[in-house]
């Protein structure tokens, strides 16, 4: 207890710094994954993608980032084992943030799309194992999370497959693809608007003091979806193209229409990612701040301090803007050839999966969710459309992330213990 009282302010400042560092790594790696499909399909330039991501990532982190935070903070390890040693717990959380952030920085510089969720979970498990032992880790929770790493790519892949196939059946494989695109694309826009608005209303607005019932939330989401669809229809009608062109030219014009749609799905994906993955940075930080504020007592529930969510959001934005290009290129161009229609199917499917997971409080890997969605689109065109070598390298990077996070955290934990004389 004396340690917390003596070094409380310093510990919060250190935790805030490494929390920002971790959020920076998330922005450089995971956000680049999220926006890579938009850039790879040529629907957005890198500069446009960064601007959209900066706005919507921050909004998602700030408005809807609280639900998953509680799972990361309390679910992976049993904090009761640290009741008598809150100082060890605080140093462990700082070590985990530093370790995960360092690995993300290395991976981002090399252009490797890795999982930030794997990184922080591996780091937290690593410090807990050396600080207490295997009993401190809630293996049932870890098992559920590992299960989600299989379920969510599969789910997003299936959703992406059916979205893409629906666009083929309703638009591309018809006698008048351009005419049908003008008819059906606004519906896809409305669906994307519904997904994004629903998570904001149901899970986000409570953080700024607005509580809304389920019925009202769904009705408002539907209203927003209709509004988005109407706006989309107006925009599409204003696009210039020749309706008498041959079918190949009509396909190009249809892709132009889907390019408009990609802007909405890119925003949707950025918002979904911000709401889910900000927890990887602010969860351990919130734990440290809570312990210091309660004079060393590890309590079951602590309210998020006002500055924590904005800190995570800003860190994500800065990371994307300064180091996001490398991974964006890998995910956008490496797995399969993307067009706006294919990229839209992948992004909307991934966003839908992420917001579902965020709403249930399950921390998932956005990287794996998006890759699953891109694979779903590629599989719809046949396995020959996939670059299996790139996919293999991505999977290998996923496998090594969790143990690397653990080993880095263990090393940093011992250094901090020595530095503070604990």
Please render the helix and strand layout as text.
Blueprint lengths: L1 H39 L5 H19 L1 H10 L10 H25 L5 H16 L7 H34 L4 H28 L9 H25 L8 H31 L1 H15 L14 H16 L1 H9 L6 H21 L5 H15 L7 H33 L2
Helix pairs in contact: 1-2, 1-4, 1-9, 1-10, 1-11, 1-12, 1-13, 1-14, 2-7, 2-9, 2-11, 3-10, 4-5, 4-10, 4-15, 5-15, 6-7, 6-13, 6-14, 7-8, 7-9, 7-13, 9-13, 10-11, 13-14
Give a brief outline of the structure.
With 422 residues, the protein is mainly α. 80% of the residues lie in helices and 0% in strands.
Query: For the terminal residues, how far apart are their CA atoms?
Result: 12 Å
**Low-confidence residue ranges:** none
The number of distinct β-strands equals: 0
Q: Rg, please?
A: 22 Å
Shape: elongated
| Class derived from helix and strand content | mainly alpha
Helix content: over 70%
